[in-house]
């Protein structure tokens, strides 16, 4: 059941893990105090990861404007749907915006069939 999850949540988890990786890399730099060059490289790498995560967070902001807010029929909470099919953020109920896909088994492939861009 945990195979699919809400896309926005997935990207958010990715951005958060980038921050953690950034801090870990910077922390590792402390072990190379003896070499100023190595320490600088680690610090810069860490900063790069944190910048990347900021970019991802910015991307989430952009994506959020394209999402459709729906009320989940399963748990009754407001959730965001990105693309044709997505999962509820709270209970992972598969949701679709396409009537023709209603009742069909959930498949992320439906998102790739027709892209409006
Ligand atoms: Zn739900």
For this entry, give a set of tags.
single chain, 117 residues, alpha+beta, two-stranded antiparallel ribbon, 4 strands, 48% helix, binds zinc ion
Could you please describe the fold and organization of this structure?
This is UPF0295 protein F7731_25155. It is a multi-pass membrane protein. Pfam families: DUF2614. With 117 residues, the protein is of the alpha+beta class. The chain has 2 domains: 58 residues; 46 residues, no CATH class. Strands 1-2 form a two-stranded antiparallel sheet. Helix 1 packs antiparallel against helix 2. The longest helix is centred in the middle third of the chain and has 29 residues. The model has no long low-confidence stretch (mean pLDDT 86). The site of zinc ion (ZN) has 9 residues, from loops.
Write the layout of secondary structure elements.
Blueprint: H1 7-29, H2 36-64, E1 68-71, E2 78-81, E3 85-87, E4 94-96, H3 110-113
Antiparallel strand pairs: 1-2, 3-4
The structure holds zinc ion.
| Termini separation | 31 Å
Which oligomerization state do the chains in this entry correspond to?
single chain
Uncertain parts = none
Number of helices: 3
Largest sheet: 2 strands, antiparallel
Give me the strand/helix succession: HHEEEEH
* Rg estimate, integer Å: 19 Å
Ligand names: zinc ion
General form: elongated
Helix content: 40-55%
Provide the residue-averaged pLDDT: 86
Task: Count the domains.
Answer: 2
Summary of the model, kept short:
The protein has 117 residues and is an alpha+beta fold. 48% of the residues lie in helices and 12% in strands.
């Amino acid at each position: 059941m945990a195979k699919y999850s809400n896309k926005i949540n997935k990207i958010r988890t990715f951005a958060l893990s980038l921050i953690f990786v950034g801090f870990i890399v910077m922390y590792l730099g402390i072990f190379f105090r003896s070499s100023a060059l190595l320490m600088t490289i680690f610090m810069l790498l860490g900063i790069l990861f944190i910048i990347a995560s900021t970019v991802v967070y910015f991307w989430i902001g952009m994506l959020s404007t394209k999402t459709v807010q729906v009320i989940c029929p399963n748990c009754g909470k407001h959730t965001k749907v990105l693309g044709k099919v997505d999962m509820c953020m709270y209970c992972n109920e598969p949701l679709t915006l396409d009537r023709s896909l209603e009742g069909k088994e959930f498949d992320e492939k439906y998102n790739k069939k027709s892209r409006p861009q």
